[in-house]
TrEMBL record:
Keyword Membrane attributed: no
Protein name in UniProt: RNA polymerase sigma factor SigF
Residues annotated as transmembrane: none
Keywords: DNA-binding, Sigma factor, Transcription, Transcription regulation
Stored SUPFAM superfamilies: Sigma2 domain of RNA polymerase sigma factors (SSF88946), Sigma3 and sigma4 domains of RNA polymerase sigma factors (SSF88659)
Originating species: Streptomyces yanii
Keyword match Repeat: no
Any one Pfam family match given in the protein's UniProt record, by short name: Sigma70_r2
InterPro entries: RNA_pol_sigma-70_dom, RNA_pol_sigma-B/F/G, RNA_pol_sigma70, RNA_pol_sigma70_r2, RNA_pol_sigma70_r3, RNA_pol_sigma70_r4, RNA_pol_sigma_r2, RNA_pol_sigma_r3/r4-like
All copies of domain RNA polymerase sigma-70, residue ranges: 88-101
Amino acid sequence: MPVALEQTTFSARTERVAGDLPWIEDAGEVAPQDARALSKLFFDQLQLLEEGTREYHYARDTLIEMNRSLVGFAASRFCNRGSGDLEDILQVGAMGLIKAIDRFDLSREVEFSSFAIPCIVGEIKRFFRDTSWAVHVPRRLQELHLELAKAKERLAVVLGREPTVHELAEELGLSDDEVIEGLMASNGYTAGSLDIPSGNDHGSDPGPTYADILGDCDPAMDLVEDLHALAPLLEELDDRERHIVEMRFGQEMTQSQIGAELGVSQMHVSRLLAHTLTKLRSGMLTET
């Protein structure tokens, strides 16, 4: 049924577009109460339009923009979790909104917002469950972590203190070992910053951070290993080869100086040295 422009109650500028849908210049500016009424109209027409057409995309995109406020409302519940960037949460929530639009059925006779918000919240919860852990933890332990957190809150109110492992196990119908495993897995939820001071100094100078004292690979260790592997290979060289290596790398003599010492040309020294080094490299690779 065509909708006359004068019958619309929203303040955004409109004009007739293909079919029975009005043209909304900026769907994101439509007031929530107007979005509810217009959403019914757009959903009704979306079922009649052919998927992939310009009109279909217009109706679907307008529904998304008109109902983005639902994403903000749902995301506000997760802003104080201490992990996850708000922009990421809003993007994930928008995916939940799109899924809700694609799945919504007018025949259910429920408000779209009542259907969409659980979809958006579910998508955000999955985001936190799957991506907010600092290290990879099996899904079973992620879910146990959530159950333990809820149980600890319930028991803390009843007991007036933090519950013990055994009390948590009884509350959840688990063994003590399963609870301990879940509590240990909770350590993987967040990772401490390397910029945190490493000491307990409460003065004006917080002291060095963990990053300042973090160990690193010592390149000299690789050199020790190489020399250890090289020693028996040097023993396998003949006297002249070993003497050339000693003069070149131990005494740091040039090839010309070595040639003068041995009574041969610099070119001959170069060939001898290349042959010897090739033999040593091959032996090192074999050892590796």
